[in-house]
Amino acid sequence: MHYQAPRDLLNQKIIMVTGASDGIGKEAALTYARHGAQLILLGRSESKLKQVAQEISQQGGQPATLFAFDLLTATPEEYQTLAEKIAHLTDRLDGLLHSAGLLGEIAPIAEQDPIQWQQVMQVNVNAGFMLTQALLPLLLKASSPSLIFSSSSVGRKGRRGWGAYSVSKFATEGLMQVLADEYQGSHLRINCINPGGTRTSMRASAFPDENSALLKTPADIMPTYLYVMGNDSRHESGVSFDAQPGRVAGPAQ
Ligand code: NDP
Fold first, then answer.
1. Are 39 and 56 contacting, i.e. CB atoms less than 8 angstroms apart?
2. Is 165 one of the catalytic residues?
3. Can you tell me the ipTM of this complex?
4. pTM of this prediction?
């Protein structure tokens, strides 16, 4: 997407990013902060989140708040407690980017380990549902809130070997569509972004033999993440955006 975000696109906005400790989520947090947002960072590693918060302050951003929170093991009650803590910090949430994700096994369905299958569903689908549900009241208090889920090309067309991950991304697209229909006509917009093959550790686990130098970096795909988070997309809801339109899915070439 050739979107040129104004420097002040996210001024006055309070935005939460999950998976903010690494990969695309980390880059999105740094990018949103550079465009004026105040960040709430969620990830499972406190030390990695602290580094991201430090980078935000080094680049002149507003101080970020961080929550070390394990999306794999958290109970529904813990999501509510997290939302209460956030409600003590802010009266509204202008944006929520669900970037945390788990790849699981690349193996045929016949060989997928049921425990790993459940873990992928927990982090990629159930956590997105529970966190969204807990934070909806704060999102609805913002004037033009944006809720973003992370999809994948294998969440639109099944591909052999992608097992739980593929199925979880279909469910993510479904969650986005159901929510978008429920909030149609309201001020809350709900969309997905499919980043397309991007140079992160998840990608390296999925395609260990590819030449990663041929992949876009998280920084390269930020125009889409800015567009969907900022007010220029306020009339778009129920859309699954491609951060790399036209890219053919599969190994980099
Ligand atoms: P990374 O593996 O680089 O980062 C994943 C992030 O999720 C990390 O911050 C990780 O934390 C966090 N996370 C994982 N498990 C948990 C958990 N149990 N609790 C809290 N946080 C957790 O992935 P990417 O940045 O590549 O992917 C971001 C999103 O984009 C994902 O949803 C992915 O499915 C999707 N995507 C990525 C593509 C790509 O090519 N990179 C292509 C298509 C979709 P920690 O730092 O502790 O590991």
1. yes
2. yes
3. 0.99
4. 0.98
